[in-house]
Amino acid sequence: ERVEIIVRPAPAGSGIRFSLPSPSGRVLVAPRPDNVVATVLATTVGCDQARVATVEHLLAALAGMEVDNALVEVHGGEIPIMDGSALRFARLIEAAGVRQLDAPRRVARICRPVTFEDGDRSIHAHPYPGLRIEYRIRFPHPSVGSQSYCFDATPQSFLREIAPARTFGFAQDVERLRAAGLARGGSLANAVVFGDAGVLNPEGLRFEDEMVRHKILDFLGD
Length: 222
Fold this sequence. Notes:
Helix content: 10-25%
Low-confidence stretches: none
Strand order of the largest sheet: 1-7-2-3
Shape: globular
Largest sheet: 4 strands, mixed
Structural class: alpha+beta
């Protein structure tokens, strides 16, 4: 399905907001935790009137490029998947330019260690003068296995190390996803797909550890 977004400047203090079509006209939805309505394979935010899916790659690009205020006008029910990474979004933001606003930047400071665990998954947050993400993954597929990466966030390092990393999946899951009405537009043009023998994409991987880098991308966006 055809989808389109326009990312517009926004005044200081407005944060990131999505302008979504609804039966009563356009509504504004902020990507706050209480507006998350689904997290199956992608993150969907919305309200009773409207919702937009797969917001995490665009939000990662905005966060990675240090954009605090923007109005995202959405035409359609999903953010375009592009090539499965955040690189095109980040390059377009870079080309448009980012302006420093005449207002203090409000930040959330981690003052003491915080841990959240769910089964074999966990997040540990510690005080730090900046943003550093250390990520570890472990998948049973031999082409993925165990990977780890440490990322110190700046717009330059995001463009170089994280933005190009594409979403990934496994060929054995494709039919199940499509039967559930998901990944209908999915192809090797917008995801790295692993078969039994390895990567199915003819161009191969962009990084040996592209998978854990993309997990950092998703983490930033979410």
